[in-house]
Amino acid sequence: MFEGFVNPALVAGGLLAAVPLIIHLFNRQRHKPVAWAAMRFVLAAHRRTRRRVQMENWLLLLLRMAAIALLALAVARPFTGSQGPLAGLTESRRDVAIIIDASASTGYRTEVETIFERITARAGDLLAELDGARGDRAHLVIGGAWARLAAWGDPAAALAILADGPEPSDEHFDLAAALAEVLAFAKEEAAGASQSRVEIWVLTDLQRSTFLADELGDPDYLKVADSLAALGLKIFIEDLGAEESTPPNLAVGTLKTQSANLGPGEPLDLGVRVFNHGTVTKSGVRVALEVDGVRRPSQVLHLPARSSAEAIFPLIFEDSGEHVVRALLEGDRLALDDERVRILRVPEPVRVAIINGKPAPEIERDAAGLLFAVLDPQGDDGQLVSPFRPKELRPRDLESGDVDLDDFDLIWLANVDSLTPRAVAALEERVAEGAALVISLGDEVLVDAFNARFYSADGAGLSPAELLGPVAVASRQTDYWRVKAFEREHPALELFAEERWRALLTEAPVWEFVATRPHDNAEILCQLDDPSGSALFLSRTYGRGSVYLWTSSIDESWTALPSWGPFLVPFVYDLVSFAGTPRKPERSLAPGAALQAEVAEFPRRVELVGPDGTARVLSGEPEKIGRDLWRLPAVSDEDTAKVGLYRITTESSEPIAFAVQLAKSESNLERLAPSEVEGLHEAFVLHKPGAQVDPEQALLRRGELWRPLAIAALCALVLESLVAAWIGRKRGGRA
To answer: What pLDDT was estimated at residue 438?
Structure first.
């Protein structure tokens, strides 16, 4: 009769129906007959009506027991299938959750319509089956990088949203987030019970990257599906994608510089990689490049199936600063990935102050001289160009206050014995504002004075470590230490991660260094193979800037590294390039990412101009974060939903450009095979759009009987009251 109960534990409440019977039996046991002569006439009359009275009492008892039993069953919410004998009495109200895949890939256009238009049309068909007047509820979830609950409750409201013609987002489809949104109100609908009756529909293009994890491990949505399955729910997935298993599509994948970005006037190669995600070879694919709005000559690529090719564009930028580079393809059925924008920064020369603590006539013994030779290799003929502007200073230049540290992006203390508190305070202020400080040690450094000026146990000092004292080998003829470990991904050291260059760092002898006790906030970038595993190279952040400590000498006094092959040039070059270039917020964002830009002047009337040219004023007040640096009001995630080029404008500074980029996975339109869908999870059911739901597949079409049972319980109570009143009047009349 019943296929199950939504609240099976409450079925035990039916035992309460026995309470009236127990009370009746208990009361009978308490009565003790007492013989009384005058009662024999009453007993004689009672014997004549005894059977009728017993029948009336039993009728009242049964009605009361039935009311309690029916009420307990109603609360337990029994249900039956659509083919059951009680199907005609079941509650017909439906609770339907529809998840719409609104990812960028659904913008793919077929011969007549886009995939997204198919999806919204099918969602409209499902909603049209519902009737708000009978209590049907609709939950419309638009799935993108996060779930948007567009409508809940009234099906007519959900239909009105679809009638407004929504568009696909420029995001990927996070199935886990969408199912989690459904899980929240499925639990609410179950009201703490073990089962729910929400119907779940996922309308999607079945893009493979949506359902399969890119890396090892299970996709996130599987855990949410487990929770839905535990509520007795099935997830009906409808494939509304293209007919091909791998729809043809070309996409601009990356814009990457192929050579060092030295600065204005220097040649630079930019590579544009184009992907052919289809199964058919494409020839004569034309790639165009725009630089600051000016179209450059296009190139033609040959793209075999399921492969990529790169077009190289030689560029020369006459001005430093930010430049907008845009790569374009001829439009295809998914237009969104036929264009990609990059904000390319052409750097100003890094301004370097080299503080020479120990000048020497031989350059191998002069740390500052070696650094100057690396950073300014220009010969007399002027043929060599450097991206650095080094200037050699003496410690007294810092101590006198005649040098303005704002004129430098990086300060290098080379074997400096000590500095006055005034000079150290100036360094602290400049580094906190964003400059970099590099400290290389040597025999001139006074350990106690250094610690007093540069180190603080609470992290307030500049140094990433406390100096403990010099450590030297017993004999340079036979003993030495080497680098045993280093951070291979750090920009100053990543060159040496390659096998052919590694020996330049790891095989050179180190005869002497200064032992240190690193601070908790320090990062050890290079470590020696001495018994203590001492640090050779450390770093830390300080305010908006950074500090690097080289615990040996940068000349040949304590180590052979400066002359051990071509080590010094790439190391110093990469370190100064990385540390001396001011860090700026990333200007390439994913859809829906937030951004806070910075300007060097107080901003007035800050506006955001979107890809379509519309502008709006950014709300909020700018924040001062330095002497001449202001953080603009944030661009929220709602402002960056669309792919394209954005600009932040103010009345007092140049526009700030940033690009919102399409996720590369959205360009690969390869789809899951239907046979793969149900194998992903036991709760997944692949459903053909428009087909009837097989009642054997799910608990989806079950009907609940709580309302008829509740009505029956009410009827039993009313009937019990009427019978009791009738019996009372009849017996009273006889009296």
So the answer is: 97
